[in-house]
Write a structure and sequence with these properties.
By secondary structure, the protein is of the alpha/beta class. The protein has a single domain, classed as 4-Layer Sandwich (Metallo-beta-lactamase, Chain A). 29% of the residues lie in helices and 30% in strands. It has nine helices and 18 strands. The strands form three sheets. It has a nine-stranded mixed sheet with strand order 8-7-6-3-2-1-16-17-18. A hairpin with a 5-residue loop joins strand 2 and strand 3. The longest helix has 24 residues.
């Protein structure tokens, strides 16, 4: 009896491990997951051969950050205990504070940020503490002062540090990725001035857009939406937040452009899985949200 119980438990554990490994290392796919972190931002980019980028890590409050409470357990469930890159769009509390827990709980290869934030006078206290923890944990800190392009595992990345003339939101470090004809744009908290700056860059349309600044009416202008021309959009936002995000004006703009919009306060996590053929499978905490193609098959 004990042997059969042991065998059954061992088999169940093996199946669980196999499912996690399959979820993480599904061959050839590029996956983007937007986590539900309340009134904050966090998204995981999982590359076809297993490399990882975490874009922001949500907020929390002193002594209890979302990196520790929410993201670490979810990443561990996915079989991820190491991040190749942590990408900080800007050092606002709701994007950056959770990195404390991420740096504490996981090994992180590099922390990327706009180098302008390391030169603030006076310094940003949250950023100072994060940089100190990164160095203590052996994480390389990499600042960007000009646009840079990278290609790895079939994914091309465009990293763009913006120049917001001292306004943190408009100095966000933004990320544009391309894979198999599929494109995605991670916009941080940029507002109208930064959106105008971005319009000067020659990039393909972003089929998937992380809506800037939680759907604030100061972002997602008509000009920007015509430039980005997304098919799908994700708004990372807290339920019944006191900012009134997302703005009804922004929701109306997205609808008028025919953009299918997901909200983490309603859909929970949102995941897009891109195949080498450009096939897109969409999933949320509520179930499947369909299959599409970045380009006609």
């Amino acid at each position: 009896m004990r042997k059969s119980l042991f065998f059954g438990s061992s088999l169940a554990l093996l199946v669980l491990i196999c499912l996690r490994l399959h979820s993480r290392f599904h061959p050839g796919r590029f996956q983007v997951t937007f986590f539900d972190v309340g009134q904050g931002d966090s998204a995981l980019l999982l590359f076809p051969e297993g490399k990882t980028i975490l874009v922001d890590a949500g907020g929390g409050f002193k002594g209890s950050d979302l990196g520790t409470r929410e993201l670490f357990p979810e990443l561990a469930r996915m079989g991820i205990l190491h991040l190749d890159f942590a990408f900080l769009t800007h050092p606002d509390w709701d994007h950056a504070y959770g990195l404390h827990g991420i740096l504490q709980e996981l090994s992180v290869g590099e922390l990327w940020l706009n180098s302008a934030f390391t030169k603030l006078d006076p310094p940003n206290p949250l950023l100072v503490s994060l940089l100190a923890k990164a160095r203590l944990r052996g994480t390389r800190v990499r600042g960007f002062s000009s646009p840079s392009d990278f290609e790895t595992q079939g994914v091309r990345m465009h990293v763009i540090p913006l120049h917001g003339e001292g306004k943190t939101n408009d100095e966000s470090l933004v990320l544009f990725v391309e894979f198999a004809g599929c494109t995605a744009f991670f916009s941080g908290d940029i507002e109208a001035p930064a959106e105008r700056e971005l319009a000067g860059f020659k990039l393909p349309h972003a089929l998937l857009l992380k809506v800037a600044h939680h759907g604030s009416k100061t972002s997602s202008t008509e000009t920007f939406l015509r430039w980005a021309f997304p098919r799908w959009a994700v708004i990372s936002v807290g339920a019944r937040n006191h900012y009134g995000h997302p703005s009804p004006i922004v929701l109306q703009r997205l609808s008028a452009h025919g953009i299918r919009t997901f909200r983490t306060d309603f859909h929970g996590y949102v995941r897009f899985s891109f195949s080498p053929e450009g096939k897109v499978e969409c999933e949320t905490a509520m179930g499947s949200c369909g299959v599409a193609y970045c380009k006609p098959p």
